[in-house]
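As practice, study what follows.
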Amino acid sequence: MIKNKTQFISMQDPQAITLACNIFTRGGLVVFPTDTLYGLAATPYNSIAIQAIYGAKNRSLDKAVPILIGSFSQLPRLIETLEARVLTLASAFWPGALTLVLNKSQSLPKEISQNSTVGIRMPNHPFALALLQYCGPLAVTSANIADAANPKNGQEVLEQLDGRVDLIIDGGTVTGEIASTVVDCTQDKLVILRQGPISLEALNKHWRMQSDHN
């Protein structure tokens, strides 16, 4: 799939955030830097925009698209129920390299995830947080063609996704070496789905602490 010419700007550009939000509003795709990698993003409430993410990446439809948020106030709208122990866990490790898998809200399109859950994270990156706080939650996945290497900077993103996305926001070289820990929070016992920098032992301390208080 080839779209129109991709715009390329620096995250230092004062128009970067408003330009990105305008693109999201009309269902377009934007790439921006996060603390772990460059993310390919669309509004999470537009099923056609989510489908465009899959098309841009040549990504299999059975792989869910996580959602990034910029504040705790954005979380309740995305999930079925916000449990106190989930909030305790998020408060301990967000912003940071932890993705919480939770039961998703009925308001989210099915294209986000083929099952009843969704992965949610708050990135520890100043620009990404500012963008998310201004534009709202975003469906974000790695900014690469499926099975290709993850780009380390904006130019490498352009080499893979030129013509496939509307805007690339260059933030230089991303420093994150390890993808986030992904943990299933939908049961009484936490289950690690992808090991990252945060251990199950560290997570359980906060999970059990809240459970003991209930």
The longest strand covers residues 98-103. The CA atoms of residues 74 and 145 lie 29 Å apart.
